[in-house]
Amino acid sequence: MLDKNGIARRIAKEIRDGYYVNLGIGIPTLVANYIPEGMNIVLQSENGLLGMGPFPYEGEEDPDLINAGKQTITTLPGSSIFDSAMSFGMIRSQKIDLTILGAMEVSEQGDIANWKIPGKMVKGMGGAMDLVASAKNIIVAMQHINKAGESKLLPKCTLPLTGVKCIRKIVTELAVLDVLDGGGFRLIERAPGVSVDFIKQSTSGKLFAEADVKEMDLN
Amino acid sequence: MLDKNGIARRIAKEIRDGYYVNLGIGIPTLVANYIPEGMNIVLQSENGLLGMGPFPYEGEEDPDLINAGKQTITTLPGSSIFDSAMSFGMIRSQKIDLTILGAMEVSEQGDIANWKIPGKMVKGMGGAMDLVASAKNIIVAMQHINKAGESKLLPKCTLPLTGVKCIRKIVTELAVLDVLDGGGFRLIERAPGVSVDFIKQSTSGKLFAEADVKEMDLN
Amino acid sequence: MINKQVSDADEAIRDIKDGNTLMLGGFGLCGIPENCIAALVRKGTSQLTCISNNAGVDDFGIGLLLKSRQVKKMISSYVGENAEFERQLLSGELEVELIPQGTLATRCMAAGYGMPAIYTPAGVGTEVAEGKETRNFNGKDYLMEYAFEADFALVKAWKGDTAGNLIFRSTSRNFNPVMAMAGKITIAEVEELVQPGELDPDHIHTPGVYVHRIFQGKEYEKRIEQRTVRSKSETNYVG
Amino acid sequence: MINKQVSDADEAIRDIKDGNTLMLGGFGLCGIPENCIAALVRKGTSQLTCISNNAGVDDFGIGLLLKSRQVKKMISSYVGENAEFERQLLSGELEVELIPQGTLATRCMAAGYGMPAIYTPAGVGTEVAEGKETRNFNGKDYLMEYAFEADFALVKAWKGDTAGNLIFRSTSRNFNPVMAMAGKITIAEVEELVQPGELDPDHIHTPGVYVHRIFQGKEYEKRIEQRTVRSKSETNYVG
Fold first, then answer.
1. How far apart are CA B15 and CA B6, in angstroms?
2. Neighbours of C (≥3 Cβ pairs closer than 8 A)?
3. Distance between CA C62 and CA C46 in Å, rounded?
4. What's the per-residue H, E or C state across D71-94?
5. Which residue of B has its CA nearest to C195?
6. SS3 state of residue D182
7. Catalytic pick from A14, A46, A108, A189?
8. What number of other Cβ atoms are within 10 A of residue D67's Cβ?
9. What is the Cα–Cα distance from A181 to D214, expressed in whole angstroms?
10. Which of B5, C71, C171, D217 is most buried, most CB within 10 Å of its CB?
11. Does the beta carbon of A92 lie under 8 angstroms from any beta carbon of chain D?
């Protein structure tokens, strides 16, 4: 079973040289730590920056330079700044190669819910609805099961949706899964030490799995 | 009867302090010469410039700095440059207070034709259709009658239209006229030495004129 | 050039009235019109509808307007980090309309570009789509969203000239340029106000035609919401 | 950063094919991709559809492509100043679609912003409206116009870096940024190509994400179409 850093590490392996990538808040943010050295990747922050660099050194924080998580960050040589309309313009026109974001639930149709829990204070969808509706390539980083052991990979989402039929790939603490065109999850890889049977039990949506599913390579 | 410079001079009197103005090619361009000293006016050129200055001095022409008529020009302190989409964005959102352009025909409904003559090589509408469809305040500078003495202020335009029901004010070599909301031209001023009767004869569209119409003041 | 300079924030917002709709630039606390917000608190204008990506924090940004009960409705994409906001929302004192961040930005831009409506795929199939027209283009569904109307847009720039031209600094640009284009009256506060000719025409982000009033703000606090740093030995992006 | 540099115009346009649709930046002869046009003439690619505000003059700009009969169709707002153009048009060799200048710019922008269609009042009630959907918003009629598709966009900037970031100079900006956003493959030629970090992130007009290939052009002629000047004693705007 993977921890948050393990999920981030596995997702990092999906990144290709030359990608423009948008990382959501939470586990997706950690992915930046596992991008292989020498690979040329540009991180987009939807508040208006291409080429997001690491956190500033202590004392070098610039209040005018933050990411979409409102954290102080830095630019890199070759960075560019733009307004919010252009930022979502490049997202909608699919100039961003890969979007990585978290989810509370994903359905076997590729629907995603990640912004609202009825009865709880709703903070808003931020840029998530734009990202899921527009991105050509989305990877969801999420917990496969909640603390009660209930699956969050469902036949149908129970929470209010963020987007419909948009998710194609999911990485959880248990597995890597694709969402099939006709519906249903396909088990691609299992986390170290996790059995196919356990993944089956932990997935309430339709799951297609070969008898022999390879274990993730995290290196 | 006014010459081209006279028409330009009369139109300049319609400009108010603090106006952003777009000047079309031909007579409208001449209007810039008659803006009273000390009046703060900003000229927009739809190829992407606010704050168009005069022609450059000989030897100071910059091929990267032209107006919509493709003439070499200059900027002024406070000028700004933008792309074509923003340029027409500010035109459509009515940030330009006054548009002055030429016409081949205007109808008593306020329709304008100024871009195409059937049977002749068509060069295109350029920005004229955008300007007439969007501007809140348009003045047309045009000849009242053609060389054969035929009126160009018509019940209906005979040439392909540039825009419909958009013209409110016209300045010709003979007169200043408004287009009435319900249709018809209203004679506001006559050019020096031109009689109301001659203007009536020269206007084939419906014309409303008081018996006593004041002569233009060009000073 | 046309001189748009006013003396200060109080003069700039003098005619904002109870019940007006305002756009306020900024992302979180980054690039917010601090001086205008302070002046609004002083003036006490109430029943405001505020279009802004976020709602500030308890004691800063739009949070100050919330604390003094001047806001009737927030139109935002994300409103966390604000206990007073939550209290007013749950008690029914405050209306909130949540819309996707890109839709918010593009509806402002649409107003500035004279486009009455735009199409976006954001929110298709979700509760955001309720009551909205959906239209299919090239096999993909889009929502039709209308341009935003606002009586006033309050924006914050780094530098500006008296002709109203604005230059923004780093990611404090965010929503400011698109809101500047969208206000019926746009008020810009700047850290440094200069004379026409001192800004390079090629570097201007918001041409002066969009700005109706401009003043040099003072005492910018520029509060940081999430101070994240690394030590000199760290190579990681995030701790 | 991602390196977008290619060696020259010939390499940049290597895969432009007969029948492709190209966008070409520039207004008149100002800000046109001179090197790419020259390379296209050398390559001889034909049956091109060119989306460009103008069509050049007889012996420069797109006029060079017309002279060598490489253009099947022009989509422009204004096409004067070109005798060969006129000849081909009248003889039926060349198709021309004339559209309003603002519509042209906004249809490019729409592609770059992922908006499948936009609404504009330009052309309502004229022959431009024929066959198009008209829709009334707030009492005013608008035409629905579709985003432009182009296989390649060829743009000219002043400075660029190898990450594809572009800065334009003066009014040579014109259609270049909106076309840069709209090309499936965008090729930028620049007068000066620098390394990432040499351009101020706040001054970049076109972020590198929109640019696929970039090279430093050479021997820019920058021909002036209408050389208008005044004498030192003149105060008039126009002679």
1. 15
2. A, B, D
3. 13
4. EEEEEECCCCCCHHHHHHHHCCCC
5. B78
6. helix
7. A46
8. 18
9. 37
10. C171
11. yes
Q: Which two tokens stand for residue A204?
A: 């309430």
Question: Within chain C, what is the greatest distance between any pair of CA atoms?
Answer: 54
Q: How does D104-135 read in b/e, with b if 16+ C-beta sit within 10 Å?
A: bbbbbbbbbbbbbbbbbbbbbbbebbeeeeee
Instruction: State the Cα–Cα distance between residues C39 and B177, nearest whole angstrom.
Output: 47
**Beta carbons within 8 Å of A181's beta carbon, 6+ residues apart:** none
Tokens 């179409």 belong to which residue? D225
Query: Contact A86/D197, CB-based, under 8 Å?
Result: no
At position A111, the amino acid (one-letter code) is: D
**Interatomic CA distance for residues B128 and B111, integer angstroms:** 13
Minimal Cα distance from D182: which residue of A? A93
Say whether residue D171 is in contact with chain C using an 8 A CB cutoff: no
Contact C201 B86 (CB under 8 A): no
Angle between helices C101-112 and A84-92 (to 10 degrees): 110
For residue D115, the one-letter residue type is M
Q: Are strands B105-107 and B153-154 parallel, antiparallel or unpaired?
A: parallel
D201 and C170: CB-CB below 8 Å? Answer: yes
In sequence order, which residues have a C-beta less than 8 Å from that of residue C200 and are 6 or more positions away?
none
| Residues 6 or more apart whose Cβ sits within 8 Å of residue A76 | A51, A52, A53, D1, D196, D197
Q: Which residues of C touch A48 (CB under 8 A)?
A: 27, 171, 173-174
In angstroms, rounded to a whole number, what is the distance separating the alpha carbons of residues A176 and A100?
Answer: 14
D137 phi, psi to nearest 5 deg: -125, 125
D167 Cβ partners below 8 Å, 6+ apart?
C202, D157, D158, D159, D160, D199, D203, D204, D205
In a mutagenesis test of the D interface, which of B9, B46, B47 is the best target, namely the one with the most D β-carbons within 10 Å? Answer: B47
Instruction: Using CA coordinates, name the residue in chain A closest to C178.
Output: A85
B64 and D236 in contact by Cβ < 8 A? no
Q: Do chains D and A touch (3 or more CB pairs under 8 A)?
A: yes
Q: What is the pTM of this model?
A: 0.96
- Tens-digit pLDDT profile for chain A (219 aa)? 999 999 999 999 999 999 999 999 889 999 999 998 889 999 999 999 999 999 999 999 999 999 999 999 999 999 999 999 999 999 999 999 999 999 999 999 999 999 999 888 889 999 999 999 999 899 999 999 999 999 999 999 999 999 999 999 999 999 999 999 999 999 999 999 999 999 999 999 999 999 889 999 888
Distance from C-alpha of A157 to C-alpha of A170, rounded to nearest angstrom:
15
